[in-house]
Design a protein that fits this description.
alpha/beta, Aspartate Aminotransferase, domain 2, 7-stranded mixed beta sheet, 5-stranded mixed beta sheet, binds pyridoxal-5'-phosphate
Length: 472
């Protein structure tokens, strides 16, 4: 392809994306395809000859779109919002166009320095003090793995430089809420702590970690000669956006010299609102924090913000520094390859930069406040309508509820089937998409509000659809 062809196809593709977004509302939110349907539309072997790229747009319509679940649809209420604002789409084109490999400062100084700038802007936006240093990770899962690796190395006196966890030190224990995200369990297992040294602590009536239970678990481990190495606090659990009691957890972490990692993957974006920051009061006492601008903020996947108080410790854990990667500037610059697991890194910082140039902090705040208002509205409908039961507080944009008809009220398995059927009808109906889930053994329905284009009318439509589905 030469530059002229690139220009022509590129303009067509941008037009295609704009039209797709403009008409996204006409499409079923959840893909209706059956397993294997998309694969069967593709030839079994690769094209032998080139020259067919101009057909790609037609093939997109014909063979791909039916297999897309439309995460940027205004009636997307499933999982969590995964907004990719237009500005972020453009930034991705630019990042690919530049084709930068930003593993070291020298491999593209602008990639490193703009990342430093935007991560410092983001720190200010969410109200973290200047004691924090930020780096962009691909996902919260890998950031949490890094946090637990740092915790392991702190608690074991840098055992990785010796015999690792085989060195015979006392067993190191990790604590998190039973409602914490599965990435915490995965990170604890991958970091070598072992399932028998992972404590998933019971939660209270609001589904937040029960501090007393945490204290007891730590005492039991201490008495048995085990060492508390890390506590992961969830600010906004995946299931219900429950808020763990961070200040109390921080006090326990300090008392036992354990690493405190805060997983605010979803809720972090809400911290751009000063009125929401009570949710992570105590965060300044943590060792590391992760949140995902690639969820609610509008920065397209992937962009996870990892903040750490002691970057030297992180670099000591992550750095291998072979001779072929050393440069003359190493003492004076950040080499972000040493701030996470992988070596290579894309120029992700442009996505946040472009987003902020486009909407600014105040534009973002207005959108987040709109979503919180919409969630409050839905909560009021659930609370005010006979037959519906809300099963969790609504501090953010997720409303968890179930339908409890009188006739089924005493029959948990019939209630589960009834609520699954409500979710199935809505999802297969195509007008909206939400997630059926379980909470402490009960079948519930989650509505996660916050797509960039979701207005009140879409939430009203969801409520009408829920009432209809519950009646039939
Ligand atoms: N933590 C929480 C609270 C989440 O809700 C999620 C995703 O839903 C994650 C972690 C994992 O995020 P990622 O996909 O960036 O690894």
């Amino acid at each position: 392809m030469n530059a002229d062809e690139f220009r022509r196809l590129g303009h067509q593709l941008v037009d295609w994306v704009a039209e797709y977004r403009e008409r996204i509302e006409d499409r079923p939110v959840m893909s209706p395809v059956r397993p294997g349907e998309i694969r069967s539309r593709f030839p079994a072997s690769p094209p032998a000859d080139g020259g067919h790229l101009a057909e790609a747009l037609a093939l997109l319509e014909q063979d791909v779109l039916r297999g897309i679940t439309h995460w940027n649809h205004p009636a997307f209420f499933a999982y969590f919002p995964s907004n990719t604002a237009y500005a972020s789409v453009l930034a991705d084109i630019l990042a690919s166009g530049l084709g930068v490999q930003g593993m070291s400062w020298q491999t593209s100084p602008a990639a490193t320095e703009i990342e430093e700038v935007v991560m410092d802007w983001l720190r200010q936006m969410v109200g973290l003090s200047s004691a924090w240093s930020g780096v962009i990770h691909d996902t919260a899962s890998t950031a949490t793995l890094c946090a637990l690796l740092c915790a392991r190395e702190k608690a074991s006196g840098f055992s990785q430089q010796d015999a690792g966890l085989q060195a015979g030190a006392p067993p190191l224990v990790v604590y998190a809420s039973e409602q914490g995200h599965s990435s915490i369990e995965k990170a604890a297992l991958l970091a070598g702590f072992g399932r028998s040294n992972l404590r998933l602590i019971a939660t209270d009536a609001e589904h937040a970690l029960d501090l007393l239970q945490l204290e007891r678990a730590i005492e039991t481990d201490r008495t048995a000669g085990r060492r508390p190495a890390a506590i992961v606090a969830a600010i906004g659990t995946t299931g219900t956006t429950a808020i763990d009691p961070l200040a109390g957890i921080a006090a326990l972490a300090e008392q036992h010299d354990a690493w405190l990692h805060v997983d605010a993957a979803m809720a972090g974006t809400a911290m751009v609102l000063p009125e929401c920051r009570w949710m992570w009061a105590g965060v300044e006492r943590a060792d590391s924090v992760v949140f995902n601008p690639h969820k609610w903020m509008g920065v397209g996947f992937d962009f996870s913000a990892y903040y750490i108080r002691d970057p030297e410790h992180l670099v000591r854990v992550m750095s291998t520094n072979p001779s072929y990667l050393r440069t003359a500037q190493d003492g004076a610059v950040k080499n972000f390859r040493d701030w996470h697991i992988q070596l290579g890194r894309r120029f992700r910082a442009i996505k946040l930069w472009f987003l902020l140039l486009d909407i600014g902090v105040e534009g973002l705040r207005a959108r987040i406040r709109r979503d919180l208002e919409n969630a409050r509205w839905l909560k009021e409908q659930v609370d005010g309508t006979a037959g519906w039961e809300r099963v969790a507080p609504v501090p953010l944009q997720t409303v968890c509820f179930r339908h409890v008809p009188l006739a089924l009220a005493d029959d948990e398995s019939a209630l589960a089937a009834h609520n699954l059927e409500i979710a199935r009808r809505i999802n297969e109906g195509g007008k909206a998409y939400l997630t059926p889930s379980t909470l402490k053994g009960r079948q519930i329905i989650r509505a996660s509000i916050g797509s960039e284009t979701t207005e009140r009318r879409h939430v009203e439509m969801l409520w009408t659809a829920l009432e209809e589905a519950a009646r039939n």
